[in-house]
């Protein structure tokens, strides 16, 4: 490449380099040629060489040897050389280098040049890299240019003055008079520069801030002109007239109106006008509205101005925390937005309506929310029910109103409520002792009307089981007396047990309620015994276990049945044992879908199984359900302890103990179970069993295990590597673990197999192991 190569050719060659070394070689040769030409006399190529050097600098290579050349080109009388020189100074020089002081005189001369373009070059350079010394020397020249008649020069001088004020704040007083006069300009560029300059002056000097508060009417008129002006192709951005200038003016008005009532009053009408006439469907309009709302929140504006929140519901949620009463005044407008066709507007209006709920308006506003719940989109129901429950719990005027509200929600959107709703409602009902009769009558009527809402049916079954005697008595002061026969109640519960819509948890509630009624009625105990005995052979293990235990109460422990099935005590929600229906015996962690490693935490066996008999309702909530990702299969019966004959509920059944197993992996039809065959103080023998529920066989199955370093692992040979389809066979592998140091035992298993011509590989983490059967 010759030394006289053009800039475009140099760029092409550098881009064509195949390696970084080749690129470095090209740049080193070109830089050497540029140095040689810099040492020569003026040959007309200095500006071209500096332009190439600036490109080299942009690539990150050293270019400091071109600094003095920038000084020479700035002093040149030729415009094309001066332009490249100033560009080089802005890129290669900064205020810390002595070479920057050498161009001060040239900049001063160019600020007085007859050409506006030369003046603009000097202004841009000073505003970019001017040091404090340069700013002090050239500030009078900038002030003079601020008063010039040329708009092109004034807008650049204003931005240069901003740089000077930031470098030397005490020079701000010099620009105050000129900056005030710039507000009368019609050119948007000059106005933008003037507003930025005034903002900088006001933020740095309280006295200047007071002076410019007198200019608020002028700023308001400029802003109104922008908001109400027609279409202007020169300044229009997405239908908004110069949003950049609008944002700057709003920001300045926020500073001027802060802690000043006079300035704030002058701005109030403008802010309302901006909020009303600005289209927020575009990004430019949203930016203007955002600055408007921030200004409303920052200045001493009238509380009535908060009405603009219905335009921007999201921003209104910030205001409701600071000026709740002002937003409350426009509650009707916000509630009307719940009927808007736009889903996003409905969501924001819902969140704001929930935030407006208070002890004063809970009754009226809750009516609107319940009305909205009956017709709200499905995606908003869960959020609506959650918000209604929280508001009712916090501001309920009475327990009856609280119970009625929750039952109304369950009737309207029972399928979208949270899991903890059932135990929470049961806890509320138990504490409202004077409303037991009213509640059980109301829930019974709801159960007769509809059994499809599982949460409502569960609460109804629980109440009927607990307070069935109050229902049959037919005496209730809170509601119309209704005579209910024993057969009617049992028919309702049996309908729940037999319905295909009832979940296993709901059937458990219904069966327990039926059993509890055996101590609350007198003429249909034999029918209850018959219903319970039917479910002793139910396919559902949980329901079968309950039925077997209840049958034992009828036969062997009938003398204890009344004491065992007496009413539950009042549930104290704040007590340590209250778990909102969660199993107290342990937890099963469900892994996040994005994680490939699954945590397996097995339920611990209860220390005293008398609790299973005494707490036949399973606490205040649903029976424990297995996690979707993991499930435990307890194949053995409840083992008896030293508790005596009371615990021998399954007496007379000859069942051979089978080691309990746990599913540690279930994916793509492949299920991997783990069971403990033998366990000692320092060792354990476990068996991994893989089955296949798909319609194709699984091939190339391999299991790999890893344990902590202090634990010895031995894996026996597997029974095979092919798992037959449709669960017709299985593959087993025995693992021996020796733990001499008795450390916390953990194991990680990697499962690899081929399914339908693609290879699957997953890893599961096992943190606890099931106990052996003996």
From TrEMBL:
SUPFAM superfamilies assigned to the protein according to its UniProt record, in alphabetical order: ARM repeat, Clathrin adaptor appendage domain
Q: What is one process in the GO biological process aspect for this record?
A: intracellular protein transport
Keyword vocabulary terms for this entry:
Cytoplasmic vesicle, Golgi apparatus, Membrane, Protein transport, Transport
Task: State the GO CC annotations.
Answer: AP-1 adaptor complex
- Where are the stretches annotated Disordered? 571-593
Q: Which sequence ranges are marked TM in the entry?
A: none
**Compartments it resides in:** Cytoplasmic vesicle membrane; Endomembrane system; Golgi apparatus
- Main location per UniProt? membrane
- Write down the membrane topology: Peripheral membrane protein
Q: Which InterPro entries match?
A: Adaptor_Complx_Large_Subunit, AP1_complex_gsu, ARM-like, ARM-type_fold, Clathrin/coatomer_adapt-like_N, Clathrin_a/b/g-adaptin_app_Ig, Clathrin_app_Ig-like_sf, GAE_dom
GAE domain: residues covered: 657-770
Pfam families attached to this UniProt entry: Adaptin_N, Alpha_adaptinC2
Q: Which family does it belong to?
A: Belongs to the adaptor complexes large subunit family.
PANTHER family recorded: ADAPTIN, ALPHA/GAMMA/EPSILON (PTHR22780)
Identify this protein by name: AP-1 complex subunit gamma
Source organism (scientific name) = Oncorhynchus mykiss
